[in-house]
Each structure stands twice: as C-alpha cells, then as structure tokens.
Amino acid sequence: MISQNLARYDTKLAQLQRKGRLRALNREAGLDFTSNDYLGLASSSRMRNALLSAIDAGVPVGAGGSRLLRGNHAEHELLEEEAACFFRARRMLYFGSGYTANLAVLSTLPQRGDLVIHDALVHASALEGMKAGRAQVVSVPHNDVHAIDSAIRDWRRAGGNGAPWIVVESLYSMDGDRSSLSDLMEIADRNDGFLYIDEAHATGVHGPDGIGYAAELEGRDNVVVLHTCGKALGAAGALVGASRMICDYLVNRARPFIYSTAPSPLQAASVRQALAILSEEPERRAKLLELVSFANRRFAERFGRSGSGTQILPVIVGSSERAALIAERMQFAGYDIRAIRPPTVAIGTSRLRITVTLNVDAPTIERMIDRLAEVIEEEGV
Q: What is the pTM of this model?
C-alpha cells in the first residue's frame, strides 16, 4: 500500500499516463535516427584512442573538487585555450553540461534592472537560468525579430534603464530552423545590449569549419556563446565563450560553476580530441552535409513539403498517443525514432524528431523515409 506522502506522486504519474506523456528510460532501438551524435564521434576509434592515451599519461578520471579548489586540471585549461582559438572567442570556460552552463550564465550575467528577452522555443535549461536570475524576463514568439525590438522599446518607455539581453538558439532543436543572428546583433548593438547565442545543435556541423552560425560574432564584447560538447563533438560538457571580463565574472559569481565538482579531466581530453578531428578531418562534415541535403530532398518528395534544411527533421503528427504509436512502429521496423511530446513541445504539436547523423548512410535514410511515409499513411495522419 502506498503511503499518503507517496500517493501524490503516484497520482501525478497516473495523470501523465492518461495524457500519453509518461516518460520511461529506453535503450537503443535500431538504426540511429534520434541521437545528436551528428558526426559519429561518440564511438569513433580516434576518440577511444585519445582517452586511452590520456589514461596512460596519468590523466585522472575525476577532478576531485571544484575548479576553484583542487579540481582545476591542466586538461581543463588546455581545452579552454584550444577551444577559444578554434571558436575565435576571447576566452572560454568549460562546464559539466549544457544545462549547467545555461543555468550559470543566465542566472548570473543579467543583473537586477536588466531585461531578458528570449525566444519562446529556447531550451528548458535557459528558462531555468532566467528564472533563477534577478532580471525581468519577457518571452516573444518564435523567430519574431520585430517582437524583440518592440519589447525593448516598450521596456525603455516604461523606465527600463539597464541592459537588454537577447537569448536565442542559432539552430532550434525541435524544429531545425535558424535564428536571424545578424538582425538580432543589430538590435543588441542599437540598444546597448547583449546577445546570448546557444549554438548547441550548430556546433561542429554548421558555419566555417564547424565553428557554428555565430562564427562572425564571437569575440565581440556584447556576445556570449554556448557550445555544447555532447552533440556533434561526441563527448560531454559545454564551452561558454565571452570576453575575459565576462568569464572572470562567471568564475567569481556563477554558483553552478563555483559549487560544482569540475568536469572529468578525461572528458576535457576527449573534447580536445573532438576539436582536433574537426580541424583535421573536414570530410566528416562534408559527408554529413551531403546526407542532410539528401534527406531533405527525399523528405520533400515523400511528404510534399520542405524539410528544415538542417540535420533536424521534425514530423509533426499532433497527438501524444499517435506520435508514440508511430515511433513504436518505426522502432519495430528497425529505426530508432522517438516521439517528442508535451511539455517539451506545445500541446497538439507532438512529433517525431528525426536526426541525420554519420551513423547511417543514404540508402538507409531513403528506406527509413519510405517506411515512415507508409506508417503515417496507415495511421491516417
């Protein structure tokens, strides 16, 4: 019998079950069309060998403390130096995850009296960071540049005299579409504001040499950029690029950085290797972009509408139950495709989020899209 204290959790889980939103942990279920391992680095032999070499060289598994105590290892500093050069940033800080980095930056840098304007579809970790901060927060419709400009004007008219912070993703994880970074930069400059760009799904894939869509903006005093390391880079953690003063401020005031055990030095070594692979094996990106182009063409042919143009192809089916059913059928057919349901996406927009990675080839992509089209037709979507 469930105790009264636990019954409330059981009730809420039952509610999620009825709404088709109950989550569970599931292992791999076929060919990879769901991971963010875009360049196939996560299980590459070069990444494995780099870790083995680091272990042989005596690099420790654990940091043993926070970066401000004994946990600051040479591998962390080497990674930050090399990454700053690679991404053309003034300086970089390495965090244990993208979630932690977003939480740290957005709860620390915008000050009381500032205004944070964010795209409605930014990541949950960014929302948590803003919620934990002291600045006023305003959400604007997705990719609506004019709404951002208007929000700043309205705030100024109402007496706002701090700094506006514009928070966006360069490539959105659920729709695969892009932000207009040049327009957003113009708004930030004109209003003496800051632009915060989450490059999570662009890093390693898009921009010159995989630097990301913000390549021309990094290094500016009023730009802060997040590059996650657990997607195309095949490792874990996140790098935040900003001016030296901003990075010093984060080291001194960002509680998620100060009070967390530092990331594993071995993990830092693996990210260093990933950056080396990006520089030395440009054919990986070239091959991926060819597959992305092929997948988008085939998608348009079978579904009669354009794809996103990127490696993220959403197929919106509406209800949570239907999305889960189609995903289950695709997994049964040997394709690991997962359903994305509320609250991750808005009610009525449950979808299959298909990703293109180097873990599959063009014939496999074609077979998957053909089978998906058949299943969707059979389910009457």
A: 0.94
